Amino acid sequence: MFSDAEDDEQIIERVAGLDIGKAELVCCIRLPGNGTGKSGRARRSQEVTTHSTMVGSLAELANRLVGLGVERVVMEATSDYWKPVFYLLEAHGLDPWLVNARDVKHLPGRPKTDRLDAVWLCKVAERQMLRPSFVPPRPIRQLRDLTRYRVDLVVAQTAEKNRVEKLLEDACIKLSVVASDIFGVSGRQMMAALIAGERDPKALAEMARSSMRRKIGRLEEAFAGLPTGSFDDHHRFLLTRMLARIDQLDTDIAAVDAQIEAHLAPFADAAARLDEIPGIGPVAAAIIIAEIGVDMTRFPTAGHLAAWAKFAPGIKSSAGKAKGNGSTGHGDRYLARILGEVAVLVGRSDTFLGARYRRIARRRGRRKPSSRSADHYWWRSGTCSPTPTCTSAISVLITTTDTSTPTPRN
Known about the structure:
- With 410 residues, this protein is α/β, with parallel strands linked by helices.
- Helix content is 50%, strand content 10%.
- The chain has 16 helices and seven strands.
- The two termini are 39 Å apart.
């Protein structure tokens, strides 16, 4: 039985394809030609030129594309080299598309050069065989730069703290066995005393505060190796540098947090709505907004966003049989990281979703959720499809952009 389908025009009349490198790019422009060919099809005019990636040359190229009335400019996501080209063309009022290089694979058996790649990209684009990647607007991009940098700073700080713990182990100091957090007030005071030259285990143990006071005996055992000279000038130098770096990273994270708060002000309503979801706090809300934006018209449904974020199972089947494990790829690692953390927090909470997760986990013999598998387990268990955190975020953000019909909050 036939069904009606609405397809776009097969050919985009005025299109450009860019093969971008670090120092230069190749631009292929295809326009309507004069008359028809032997096959009766309309002719196409084509021009292939090479340009520098300096701002002046890019501005000249943008003005030429505007003058020719180019409707769409398509480029591959090549490292970070596409960014200045994309932003400059966007500023000139053009419609740049960023496409996945995997979707523009060159046909086997054909020679591969920059010029041929630009021509092939232009031909595929003019037949509308490509899909654009999600590139958020400038305010969201700036917020994303800040949130991603904050994640990287936290990762660097965690790595430095791990080095400190290894250094103490190397010096036969078992502080991490007794203290759950060696970088608390008591732990930092003890390490500062070590750097200052204190080597008496009892004096160091007496620096414990509040709840650690009941562990003074074990703390003395942890520092028992100090009188033998296990902590020398070598360890003191390294510990001084590591603690200074941790403190500097604390300062940097605080400064970035202030900038994130300032850039998040225009999206305060969306952040507040996300904050209402169990497991999502201010930091998670900022990261989610930075990664997916607040304009939900880019994603027709919640399922589209879940699939874009690679949290929906892939469909791979042939001859009636499923192929592979249904994996979806890597996706946005920053979004995956925060959604995994949220899923773990929800699984441990007293909310309805947390209780249901633990009930299903007991029945299936699952004990402790991991950051990545927890989100997939939500989908497999049928608790929420495809994931509670992702679909809840979509539902909440949709309500901030849909002004026609109110949508109930999740």
